[in-house]
Amino acid sequence: MIYKGIEAGLINQDTTIIASSSGNLAVAVASICKLLQLKFIPVIDPNINTDNERLLTLLSYRVVKVQERDETGGYLLTRIATVERMHAEIPGSFIADQYGDPNNYKGYYGLADEILEALPQPDHVFVAVSSSGAITGLSSRIKPVRPETKIIGVDIEGSVIFQSQAKSRYISGIGASRVPPIIANAYIDDVVMVSHMELIAGCKALLQEQAIFAGASSGAVYYAAKAYLEVTGSSGTAVMIFPDKGYTYMSTIYNDAWVEALADKLAAAEPASI
């Protein structure tokens, strides 16, 4: 997105780049902008991991943190509204829009090519969704040459990407409070929804069973893939995309006290049974 913005003349040395992101996108753009000596302002929310917030503070020109939940119970719509307001206020600014810019998902074509080179005929590809860049880019590249490959989206409870009912989400890196426009270009065969606690269980299982120390969306993918393949009785080759590392979740997913508090919060939010 940044490269294409520069190529199109939309970004120069006087440009301030703004993005709604608390995770990989924000860290990537912050790193690129630091290297190119460009001003970058990520708009984050309270669900951000402490380490990511510290890193973004080091790399970015400024960090803006929203505090108000939107009407869906999440923060995404508040973040996007803040980005749009800042864009209107800052002359010559550029929005790195991971939800609507096609260059987001086109950036994943290289990963799709790597997958097909390593595994010419994958039976399943499991991908977590948030901005939907990964699943859109991978599926739109893989499906035309391997139409038999099933693309499985993995989402978290409370996200509205594949269902209409929104609820509060407490883990960053997966899900969204609105349907990302670029997902209209994706080819998705099936979807697995995971709960907060299933996601956490997936992270811990991935570490214990595979010695892979990964983050929220990776744990969700691992849990979902195992459950899906067991329920459907599918066999063959399954590809799982693990895009995040565990160290940024040390204070949350890998913190027993935080997990216990989250479990209590989720239980309190459940309607009482009759």
- From the spread of the alpha carbons, the general shape counts as globular
Unreliably modeled segments? none
Number of helices: 10
CATH architecture call of the largest domain: 3-Layer(aba) Sandwich
Task: Give me the strand/helix succession.
Answer: HEHEHEHEHHEHEEHHEH
User: Class of the largest domain, according to the CATH hierarchy?
Assistant: Alpha Beta
The overall pLDDT, averaged over residues, is 93
Number of strands: 8
Topology:
Blueprint: H1 2-7, E1 16-20, H2 24-36, E2 39-44, H3 50-59, E3 64-65, H4 76-89, E4 94-95, H5 102-106, H6 109-118, E5 124-128, H7 133-142, E6 150-156, E7 190-194, H8 196-210, H9 216-232, E8 238-240, H10 256-269
Structure description:
- With 274 residues, the protein is α/β, with parallel strands linked by helices.
- The protein has two domains: 2-97, Rossmann fold; 103-264, Rossmann fold (3-Layer(aba) Sandwich).
- Helix content is 42%, strand content 13%.
- The strands form two sheets. The protein has a four-stranded parallel β-sheet with strand order 3-2-1-4, with helices on both faces. A four-stranded parallel β-sheet has the order 7-6-5-8, sandwiched between helices.
- α2 (24-36) links the parallel β1 and β2.
- The chain is globular, with a radius of gyration of 19 Å.
- It starts with a helix and ends in a 5-residue tail after the last helix.
- The model has no long low-confidence stretch (mean pLDDT 93).
